[in-house]
């Protein structure tokens, strides 16, 4: 086994938490069950890694084997990446073709290798007709950097692909070309949608968020739920509060549904508007450039936070459509300009 491959596997194993190590190695399916049984996973991690590297050397692990282990680790830790969504379209009059995974892989790989002398491409098929693609980029003069790869998740026979954000933006057009040609599409565009949670992005673009996620149990009538009312309060006030809470609850349910929301961490709004004033001679009125403002809402779970605002009394119901349209518009980047 090559020294660079051994070092690559070593670094990948060192990243894996000990409580996940056995699970990931079994998913890798490179080392046999009998070989894994020879490893004492209770000893220090450095010793475990050395034993595993020795087993990999015995089986002569290749660079592709090491790349597959890295893909599996990334699948277990998807949230460590930020994912962008790309949408592809067919040309006018083009029909949907039958998808051939082997043909897709060969075509994708050939396009990249023809354009770049040094690039390694690895694939791993998963459930739901998805294929994970790992690309390690090099240049005409340098070998591929295995420690700064790009990951792409493509769902066959769909127009959507999910790409991990990367500082190597110069390779994005080439990657888009490879995806478009290999999947037999005509054009590709980057959507204004991004998150660390790949499953949530998938649920949004496929509009599965009312099916994929477990639904809340909403069978209990509103009157039986705790409304936090003081039993000594005037009955007229209690009635008014109940009516208002029922209204807020109804509007919130109509807007967000009864199911948990897809997980996004932020929504960003860029405003561009001309200054309007009846006063002549105003410095701002003479300004040709529009005024620009950026507003960003952040939360570990933004959509659930927005859903809770009105019931908590923090905001009036209904919320602004700019906040509630995120899943339907399939975007969390917005540009607002004068009409």
Question: Can you walk through the features of this model?
Answer:
It contains 12 helices and 9 strands. With 339 residues, the protein is an alpha+beta fold. Strands 2-3-4-5-1-6 form a 6-stranded antiparallel β-sheet, with helices on both faces. Strands 8-7-9 form a 3-stranded mixed β-sheet, with no helix packed on it. A hairpin with a 4-residue loop joins strand 4 and strand 5. Helix 1 packs antiparallel against helix 4 and helix 2 packs across helix 5. The longest helix has 22 residues. About 6% of the residues have low confidence. It comes from Papio anubis (Olive baboon). Its main location: nucleus. Keywords: Centromere, Chromosome, Nucleus. It is found in: Chromosome, Centromere; Nucleus.
Query: Could you estimate the helical fraction of the residues in percent?
Result: 25-40%
Find the structural class using helix and strand composition.
Answer: alpha+beta
In quaternary terms, these chains amount to single chain
Shape: globular
The span between the termini is: 63 Å
> How would a textbook summarize the main sheet?
6 strands, antiparallel
Low-confidence stretches: 211-231
Mean pLDDT: 88
> How many E strands?
9
Beta-strand content bin: 15-25%
Give the ordered list of helices and strands.
HHHHHEHEEEEHEHHEEHHHE
